Amino acid sequence: MAAPGAGMMEGGVPTAQPPGTDMTGICFRDQLWLNSYPLDRNLVFDYFALSPFYDWTSNNEQLRMRSLHPLDLSQLSKMTGTEYVLSEVMEPHLFIMRKQKRDSPDKVTPMLAYYILDGSIYQAPQLSNVFAARIGRALYYIQKAFTTAASKLEKIGYVDSENDTTLPEPKAASKETVDIKELKRVDHILASLQHKLPPAPPPPPFPEGYVPPSTAETEKGPETQEATESQAPSVDPIIDQGPAKRMKF
To answer: The domain containing residue 104 runs over which residues?
Structure first.
């Protein structure tokens, strides 16, 4: 048997992780408990306490030891420390549990959020991690698109250069000439617009958890860059670690 609060994998190996760690890649479900008890707002906390997401040092556990309801806000508001509150309820399918730190009866700081969807418990990813993964993935595919376009343009230019050598002189003369005056006029218009427009604002800071690529990676040789370009983009907490793709406990 696994210790209270420790998850049980499908193979029967108990696992326990310290509270507060990133566990967005796993989910918890106890089908035996779900077959024995109804999942409602009165018993949902007892079910949540069986999962590895539960912190046994929370104020809710102290209320349980005193035979009080663990979600009694009148009692939790008198205490300080880590606590869980039931923020949203859509019985019997969805329950959202918020972990927060209470400093006073009126001051609380949200820490993490968990949602119980049809009996399976998940840790919700932090918004900064979602933004970092989405931005990293977008930059990856933009860089890949530019690399593919550049390689195709090089091939087109190489073919054109070969065709130029084989074409007779009369056809080469039929190519469209570039008007230098028109080119200078376009450059003048762009320069005047650049002076009229205000300077670009500084870029926003990177979200917490996003590590920008180091300058040493951009100075690597072409062989090293090709190897890094072939790597997959960063893991998305929602797309790649959604409910259907998480390890079940």
So the answer is: 27-124
CATH code of the domain containing 35: 3.10.450.580
Mean pLDDT, residues 130-143 taken together: 87
CA atoms within 13 A on the CB side of 62: 12
CA 60, 66, 72, 75 dihedral sign is negative
Task: Read off the tokens for 62.
Answer: 């102290």
What is the separation of C-alpha 43 from the centre of its chain, rounded to a whole number of angstroms?
31
Q: Give the whole-angstrom CA distance, residue 100 versus residue 193.
A: 51
Phi and psi angles of residue 140, each rounded to the nearest 5 degrees, phi first? -65, -50
Distance CA 181, CA 62 (A): 82
| pLDDT single digits (tens) 199-219 | 767 766 665 555 555 544 445
For residue 107, what are the β-bridge partners?
104
In a domain, 198, yes or no: no
Structural domain includes residue 94:
yes
Our count of domains for the chain comes to 1
Torsion of CA 206, 216, 233, 245, to 10 degrees: -80
Tell me which DSSP letter residue 105 carries.
T
Residues 6 or more apart whose CB falls under 8 angstroms from that of 130 comprise 236, 237, 238
